[in-house]
Amino acid sequence: MSLKVISLNDDQNNMDDSFDLGSFQLKEHFKSKKEVLSQDRIYVYCPPELANSIGIIVEDYSFDIVVNDYTVTDFTKKVICHYQSSDLTKAQRKFLVKATEYGAWVEPLVSYLDDRLGYTEVRLLHSSYFLHQKAFSILSHKKTQVTKRFVDIVSAVLLLIVTLPFSMLTMLLIKLESPGPILFKQKRTGQYNIEFEVFKFRSMRNDAEKNGAQWASKNDARVTRVGKFIRKTRIDEIPQLINVIKGEMSIIGPRPEREVFIEDLEQEIPYYRFRHAVKPGVTGLAQVKYPYGASVEDAVWKHKYDIHYIKHHTLYLDIKILLLTVKTVLFGMGR
């Protein structure tokens, strides 16, 4: 990717209503949204003091970005994105309106990146992203919530029945390998920041946290041999179906985290607690799209997918995540 930031000169900084927009021209419109999302170059307009910050965030993208080029007059198949446009001058906003009038594809930068990348660029988030209730149907539509709850209950009951043989064998192997309880119970933060006890098959030694709460790591020495297998195949998550039936969790949603870690993560990650607007899930978009990780940077990436899921939730997306989870279980692609 290449980034080109156009420095605003005095004329551009002080655009007024007499700014000449009469030379704008358009030759051809986009034929599809797919074409919009595959452009090699997009144009971004933002307050000048934010231009370099945006450049740092988007430096690893696969397409070119031109920032604050107000000399553009030909809007043939151009994608125009704006960021914090409320802080632009009246004439600069008029430039964007004219771009829309002449047929350019114009939308907020974060929304465009949502569709193009398949996750939300949380480092660019600001409050206006959340102020479009129509986009958050999972939060505002009762019908969506009732349907999701119905699917959760039916799916949880069926999965408990289907996985019963695996659960029985797992309980036996855990008991044979190491002393301690078969089920592991731990407080996690759920919807509306309410804590609950999550159930899992124990995959670590009974004294795993004798020195206090710790991030789990990929090759964690505290994990037992049985634990390594059931974590890799996600069998350790089966007891969380009980949490689903109890109404504390959903089949699909952001994975529940511990409050002790959340307090640290919300200092580093913008709007981290927004993930608690929905019930946590047994599986989720972050789990099927991002490899296992246990660091703040990994938490940032998972948050990108969690926010994207909440805003763009559909029944189709839930089904897609569920099928990808089944693939993960069958082929042992878990952590």
From TrEMBL:
Membrane topology: Multi-pass membrane protein
Pfam families reported in the protein's UniProt record: Bac_transf (PF02397)
Keywords, ordered alphabetically: Membrane, Transferase, Transmembrane, Transmembrane helix
Subcellular location, principal: membrane
Keyword Membrane: yes
Subcellular location: Membrane
Residue ranges of domain Bacterial sugar transferase in the record: 148-330
Transmembrane recorded as keyword: yes
InterPro entries from the UniProt entry: Bact_transf, EPS_sugar_tfrase
TM segment ranges: 150-174
Protein family (similarity comment): Belongs to the bacterial sugar transferase family.
Name of this chain's protein: Exopolysaccharide biosynthesis polyprenyl glycosylphosphotransferase
Species of provenance: Pseudoalteromonas shioyasakiensis
